[in-house]
Amino acid sequence: MNANITASASSSDPDFSNFAMSFMAQALAGQMASLLKVEFAKLKGPTVQPMLLDVKQAATYMGRSEQAIQHMIFERRLPVVRDGRRVHLHRPDLDAWIERNKE
What we know:
The protein contains 5 helices and 3 strands. The protein is rod-shaped and about 80 Å long. It starts with a helix and ends with a helix.
């Protein structure tokens, strides 16, 4: 019985060879997919970042809550760009606020 177990695990067994080839092919395909993903990302080029952010985007950018950004706007600590009722924040103004408040 031990001879059968040893024989079934040997490389001369067609089932084992098929399994090994399938495993190696899947591993190689996964590595190739990872490499191609990186290369295709390079081909896309840089993404365009908006200059004007809404309150929600500004909150994410600054790492603050939306309420905190609204409070800073109300206190006029952050300048805004208004278009009717819409309120936008200019990204360089947010960067300037960050620089002014560094310790």
